[in-house]
């Protein structure tokens, strides 16, 4: 079945010509949805609707906002199976991953339903006698949310839920490959009772994002995507002196030391590198292995990768789904050729797969014998491709892990308390995993990286209040 999607502006579903198509990457003959391609004029109307809705929403009792988010979370939970199927059909995650992401979105909505009641003010002693001092957290205004395709319901939820919880209104642009699942989320939030204009959705291509960033009545921008686009978003926001928050990917190291449990190390690497088709900004895309365990680890990693079942995202036997699009598959294959040209050795995978259904399938790929500064170890591939680097010892592993411009997530597999403690302290990354995959974070704790992986305030959990509110300091004299 092919859905026909609409924008949501001022609480109304607005169509236009449905000229864009969302294609199932597992089956190219399946059109998931047709959608209108929004314009700058649509963005302008959405921002005006959000601006008009802001006073009523921000001044309402926090219970009103809490109840809307809690109801939305309940509805998402109740429809987890159908939403998970839609997500997997549209994005290409396996069905267990799709349903898991849907449940994560539901939990995020419910978490921020609680946070709506707690805005972290303070009562302080003044240095001047007879004065009282208090600080308050207030809503900022209209937020523009530009969301990616790789977590097409969880990331919209973790941006929108705190924005709404703290009294802001929203204009959101979902990623072009995955508009249907974002549309479903926005429809549910309206069903849960969000007033007209509080949550607006404009579907379209890159120009829509630019129109949101450049709009003078948008008070803040939250963006997740590539470094290149992020640089443009940052420039546009700073030109208007509006607040901006950006998550821009990673080239995440997983360090495997000689004393590591081999089975645990391989399991961490397989999970981090290949699940989600490697389309996670926290994926373990470069694996740094000390020489005492190197040969055994690389052989076991390639063997396990070779055994992974690639197939239709909705097939219960599939462990790895397709790339989200033809352009993403082409990028994955291009980086394999670059790595081979620079001396890397492909141990398994490396090419597209021809299956019963036409889709963007690629075999999980392990590339060994790579050097730290080769492009495969410096640039984000965003596919089921893992490269390995042999090092002498822990100190060399740490130095190589800290190279590059990314610093989102980093992991180490070791039984040494000494090295695990040192790694946690000295690794230049926003998130550190010890004896765990680099991918996989809880919804109630801060998310973000260092260097060019992130810019601005952290996302998720208790940290979200920093970005989605502003502090007012109030003095009262007797």
TrEMBL record:
Domain Aldehyde dehydrogenase: 20-474
Active site: 247
Keywords, ordered alphabetically: Oxidoreductase
Spans annotated as Disordered: 1-21
Gene3D superfamilies for this protein: Aldehyde Dehydrogenase, Chain A, domain 1, Aldehyde Dehydrogenase, Chain A, domain 2
Alphabetical list of InterPro entries matching this protein: Ald_DH/histidinol_DH, Ald_DH_C, Ald_DH_CS_GLU, Ald_DH_N, Aldehyde_DH_dom
Taxonomy, superkingdom: Bacteria
PANTHER family in UniProt: ALDEHYDE DEHYDROGENASE-RELATED
Family statement drawn from the similarity comment of this UniProt entry: Belongs to the aldehyde dehydrogenase family.
Protein name: Aldehyde dehydrogenase family protein
């Amino acid at each position: 079945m092919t859905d026909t999607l609409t924008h949501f502006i001022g609480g109304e579903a607005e169509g236009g010509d449905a000229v864009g198509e969302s294609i199932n990457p597992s089956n190219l003959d399946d059109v998931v949805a047709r959608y209108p391609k929004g314009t700058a004029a649509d963005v302008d109307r959405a921002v005006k609707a959000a601006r008009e809705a802001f006073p009523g929403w921000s001044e309402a009792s926090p219970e009103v906002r809490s109840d809307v988010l809690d109801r939305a979370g309940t509805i998402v939970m109740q429809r987890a199976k159908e939403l998970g199927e839609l997500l997997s059909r549209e994005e290409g995650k396996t069905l267990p991953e799709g349903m898991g992401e849907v449940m994560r979105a539901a939990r995020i909505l419910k978490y921020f339903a609680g946070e709506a009641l707690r805005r972290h003010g303070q009562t302080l002693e003044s240095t001047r006698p007879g004065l009282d001092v208090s600080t308050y957290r207030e809503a900022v205004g209209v937020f523009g949310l530009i969301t990616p395709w790789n977590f097409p319901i969880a990331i919209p939820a973790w941006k929108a839920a705190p924005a709404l919880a703290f009294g802001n209104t929203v204009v959101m642009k979902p990623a072009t490959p995955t508009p249907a699942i974002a549309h479903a989320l926005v429809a549910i939030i309206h069903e849960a009772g969000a007033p007209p204009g509080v949550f607006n959705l404009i579907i379209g291509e890159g120009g829509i994002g630019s129109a949101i960033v450049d709009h003078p009545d948008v008070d803040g921008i939250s963006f997740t995507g590539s470094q290149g686009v992020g640089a443009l978003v940052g420039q546009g926001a700073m030109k208007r002196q509006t607040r901006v928050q950006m998550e821009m990917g990673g080239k995440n190291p997983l360090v495997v030391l000689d004393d590591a449990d081999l089975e645990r190390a391989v399991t961490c690497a397989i999970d981090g590198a290949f699940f989600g088709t490697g389309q996670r900004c926290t994926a373990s895309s470069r694996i740094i292995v000390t020489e005492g365990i190197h040969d055994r680890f690389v052989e076991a990693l390639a063997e396990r990768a070779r055994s992974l079942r690639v197939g239709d995202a909705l097939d219960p036997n599939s462990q790895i789904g397709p790339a989200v699009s033809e352009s993403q598959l082409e990028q994955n294959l291009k980086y394999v050729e670059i790595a081979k040209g620079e001396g890397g050795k492909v141990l398994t995978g490396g090419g597209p797969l021809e299956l019963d259904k036409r889709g963007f399938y690629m075999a999980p790929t392990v590339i060994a014998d790579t050097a730290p500064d080769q492009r495969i170890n410096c640039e984000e591939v965003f596919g089921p491709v893992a490269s390995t680097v042999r090092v002498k010892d822990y100190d060399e592993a740490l130095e190589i892990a800290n190279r590059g411009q990314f610093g989102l997530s980093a992991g180490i597999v070791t039984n040494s308390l000494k090295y695990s403690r040192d790694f946690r302290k000295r690794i230049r990354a926003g998130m550190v995993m010890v004896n765990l995959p680099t991918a996989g974070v809880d919804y109630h704790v801060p998310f973000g990286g260092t260097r060019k992986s992130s810019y601005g305030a952290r996302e998720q959990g208790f940290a979200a209040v920093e970005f989605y509110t502003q502090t007012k300091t109030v003095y009262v004299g007797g």
